[in-house]
Amino acid sequence: MCQLLGMSCNTTASIRFSFTGFAQRGGCTADHVDGWGIAFYEPTGSRMFLDDRPASESMLAEFVRSYPIQSRTVISHIRKATQGTVSLANTHPFTREWLGQNWFFAHNGDLRNFHPALDGGFLPVGNTDSEKAFCYLMQCLRQTFADRLRPPEWTELAPVLARLNREVARYGNFNYLLTNGDALYAHCSSQLASLERAHPFPMARLVDCDIRMDLGALNGEVDCMVIIATEPLTLDEPWRALRTGESKVFVMGREVWSHHEPETIRFPQPTGTAGRAWPLPKTGEAGLAAPA
Amino acid sequence: MCQLLGMSCNTTASIRFSFTGFAQRGGCTADHVDGWGIAFYEPTGSRMFLDDRPASESMLAEFVRSYPIQSRTVISHIRKATQGTVSLANTHPFTREWLGQNWFFAHNGDLRNFHPALDGGFLPVGNTDSEKAFCYLMQCLRQTFADRLRPPEWTELAPVLARLNREVARYGNFNYLLTNGDALYAHCSSQLASLERAHPFPMARLVDCDIRMDLGALNGEVDCMVIIATEPLTLDEPWRALRTGESKVFVMGREVWSHHEPETIRFPQPTGTAGRAWPLPKTGEAGLAAPA
Questions:
Q1: Which superkingdom does the taxonomy of this entry point to (chains A, B) (predicted)?
Q2: CB contact under 8 A, A60 and B63
Q3: CB atoms within 10 A of CB B119
Q4: Looking at A9-13, A141-145, A268-272, which range is the least confident one?
Q5: Percentage of residues of chain B with pLDDT beyond 90
Q6: Relative to the CA of A45, which of A71, A159, A236, B222 has its CA 20 to 30 Å away?
Q7: Largest distance between two CA atoms of chain B
Q8: Alpha-carbon gap, residue A193 to A288, rounded angstroms
């Protein structure tokens, strides 16, 4: 199973601390060794870095860890291939332009017998179920808002995506992060956890390597952010597990919308690709809260 | 004026040598300091690196110079902004997916009063004339080949592009490189030069910094490649200037198609953005051949 990481902030922030722990999952603390990628929305535009080498031994990942890119929104993905060959073309995030905005998408899960009718407006470059699903989402958004000259607000997009999530999630686990930089959209079929950080910021300790950081020294009193990941990245913070069937929207470092589809199925993970067990905390040590 | 660099090879090769000289133009040997980008087609897919800092002092450019990415096709661009703000969104190359292939485009020139009717299938993310022209080319290709499920071959695309080049080049200098990885398409309004390299490979000397390289030691007898750049990158090789109005296609390291529109205009460069003078060789020293 792949690993997802996302960040939404009310001001620009560096994802170096979280990415340092996350990148360990690409070969060190977990066997997600089939490439990785990260997309950043910076104040003047977006860019993406992709590599088909394991994140834990990638020179490019080392560069990203050492380069304090300031962004409001980030999504990242470490791949454990279940469908599609190990290749750059199959490395997440995937990107497409719609209505003059770059959209990025990263998926964790395995969609089976998923063959949506694609009209050619968005077609996969690689051969994963994930990119096919992304093209289908973008096609449906374009069809739904065909009369628009400007991108719709998240308030309009969120219910449309929730309906699409319900539909696609019938084919397999559809844990994903999708963003146009303005909002970060998430859906959970089986595994995704979120964390809101605001003043007072704690001393945080990474799950995947022995690094602590005083987040209070890095952030101001009005700063806030949401981190979202397949598995919690830190031990000492109140991560909350999303429920199966939950769609959420994060804007400027806050959760702004949530919707639950109780009939969504949590599919078993494909044999041999199971992730590591969650670092379930002892009571009072780290708060992995029960789903709301 | 911006600077363009492209490479087409019959086998995978590293662009490190050419890029090392080219990157000097982003702040050292020329004042193209408004960002840079490079797109690679590697054996398993494509990826792109963008930066809005000057290439000569960019940590990311340093990474690209030190990282031997093996690719068949590369395009790169160093920006001297004439239209649009200095931003990541305005940094070339631009990319769009069409018929399941990633297309990359980089432009040198300045199109004035160019406002094509865009139907929404491809829209600019930034605010440059260049990205607008790219969206227009992609829209016209999609319309021309609307019945296709697979990308057309270059033999079909080249004459369509040549017709579009003639049309767009009426609005200003339209020197560009465009590629889907299979073929590298070039158009010259005012300044572009190409170089074919094959066995026996020479000892080459960069124009922009004091580096020589024995290309024979790096390439085999059957290897061949084309390098295309706004200005010649080396002193000791037979660069050929493209003519105003010339469209060319390069595949697997060879020029495969050429077309000339004699009525194409070479516009004067905008005041204050003139590039450095070409390193015109003395006779017999470096062969900047007269246009064919």
A1: Bacteria
A2: yes
A3: 11
A4: A268-272
A5: 68
A6: A159
A7: 52
A8: 9
Tokens of A119: 């009209």
pLDDT of residue B219: 87
Please provide the DSSP assignment of B50-65 as one string. Answer: EESS-GGG-HHHHHHH
Cα separations in angstroms, A57 against A48, A232, B149: 19, 22, 38
At B133-170, the pLDDT tens digits run 999 999 999 999 999 989 999 999 999 999 999 999 99
- The two three-digit tokens of residue B82, written as one number: 């004439």
Size of chain A in residues: 292
The answer to whether A180 touches A39, Cβ cutoff 8 Å, is no
CB pair distance less than 8 Å for A45 and B122: no
Shortest Cα–Cα distance, B151 to chain A (Å): 11
Is residue B153 classed exposed, middle or buried when 0-12, 13-18 and 19+ CB atoms within 10 A define those classes? exposed
Residue ranges of domains in chain B, CATH in brackets: 3-260 (3.60.20.10)
Q: What is the pLDDT of residues B67-95, one digit of tens each?
A: 888 999 999 999 887 778 889 999 999 99
Residue B44 sits at the chain A interface (C-beta within 8 Å):
yes
3-state secondary structure of A161: helix
Cα separation, B50 vs A291, in Å, equals 40
Q: Hey, which residues does A96 pair with through a beta bridge?
A: A103
Mutation pick from A52, A70, A73, A97 vs chain B, by most beta carbons of B within 10 Å, is: A97
